[in-house]
Amino acid sequence: MNRREFLGLAGGLTGYSVFVRAELPGPTSPPSREEIARQFDQIAPPQPGGDRFAGEPHMTLVDLDCDVFVAGGGMAGVCAAIAAARHGARVVLVQDRSRLGGNASSEVKMHIVGANAHGARPGWREGGLIEEFRLDDAVNNPHRSFELWDLLLYDKCRREPHLTLLLDTTLFAVETHQGLIRRVLCRCDKTEHLYRVTARQFLDCTGDCRLGIEAGAEYRVGREARAEFGESLAGDTADRHTLGSSILFTARDYGRPVPFTPPPWARKVTRDMLKFRPISSWEYGYWWIEWGGQLDTIRDNERIRFELLAIVLGVWDYIKNSGDKPDSAHWGMDWIGFLPGKRESRRLVGDYVLTQHDLEGRRGEPDDAVAIGGWPMDDHPPAGFDRWREPPFRSIPTPDVYNIPLRCLYSRNVHNLWMAGRNISASHVAFSSTRVMATCAVMGQAAGTAAALCARHGLNPRQLYEDKARLRELQQTLLRDDQTIKGLKNEDPADLARRARVSASHWHGPARPELVLDGQVRDLPGQWAHRWAGKLDEGEPWLELAWAEPVSVREVQITFDSGFHRELTLSASDHVTRQMVRGPQPEMVRDYTLSGRPGPDAEWRELVRVTGNYQRLVRHRFAPVQLQALRLQILATHGDPIARVYEVRVYG
Question: Which of 24-33, 146-155, 546-555 is least confident?
Answer without folding.
Answer: 24-33
